[in-house]
Design the sequence.
DNA sequence: TTTAATCGGTTCGCTTCCGAAACAATTTTG
DNA sequence: CAAAATTGTTTCGGAAGCGAACCGATTAAA
């Protein structure tokens, strides 16, 4: 499944994936939210509020709100750090794993349709 | 520039592109907004509010608001349809073209970094 | 042990967004 | 013509987002 990424095809791919995300029934995640979600699922643990805020270049309330929202969707959970009670560790969930897998499938399906 | 799209790499690519979009200075566009923008720039004209709403599966005010926002950024403009005064035609701008080109560059740069 | 630093959360005023419904303008139908 | 249909915008109450500043809890430093 090799894809030649030329500019116009790249944009079509980006368009098609976003359209699929808009059209499905799940609530849309913002760029910030999806970046947080994938950071947690792709990069090694642990993940903290402060660390994510620094990585994304945003303020802490942005991360807190994003976690509130995605937590409500069951995509992530919070857990107090037992070694340092100031930290909150963001943890993966089964539901979140499924969401991320579906996202990968979606992208691959659309990439495969590229001429 | 051929890219093997395996699931994990696909997710890393999606993550990296979104992270770059979050970190840059431009205001983030939502999935709906970027879908509208790329539809206008990639698909043949003319584009109307109603047509875009149907394509995205959203209500008309969503399109109106997205055009308000992106119009403020100079990425699109509206024009009354001379042949049918009820329609509003969405038109491309130079600034919008540059934005879309930069988006393509961004995606390609990150795709090229995939192992 | 008292002070200082760090962490996540909350509050603040403001902006944006949501879809349903109502609205004004225009065109088509009868 | 008048009535009906179509199109885009506005309004509505409610939800969510924004960063700056502050708060409470915890830990580290003096």
Sequence:
């Amino acid at each position: 499944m090799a894809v030649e990424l030329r500019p116009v095809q790249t944009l079509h791919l980006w368009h098609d994936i976003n359209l699929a995300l808009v059209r499905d029934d799940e609530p849309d995640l913002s760029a910030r939210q999806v970046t947080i979600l994938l950071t947690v699922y792709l990069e090694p643990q642990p993940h903290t509020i402060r660390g994510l805020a620094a990585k994304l270049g945003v303020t802490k309330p942005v991360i807190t709100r994003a976690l509130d929202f995605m937590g409500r969707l069951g995509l992530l959970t919070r857990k107090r750090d037992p070694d340092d009670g100031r930290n909150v560790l963001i943890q993966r969930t089964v539901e979140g794993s499924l969401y991320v897998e579906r996202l990968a499938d979606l992208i691959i399906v659309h990439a495969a349709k590229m001429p």
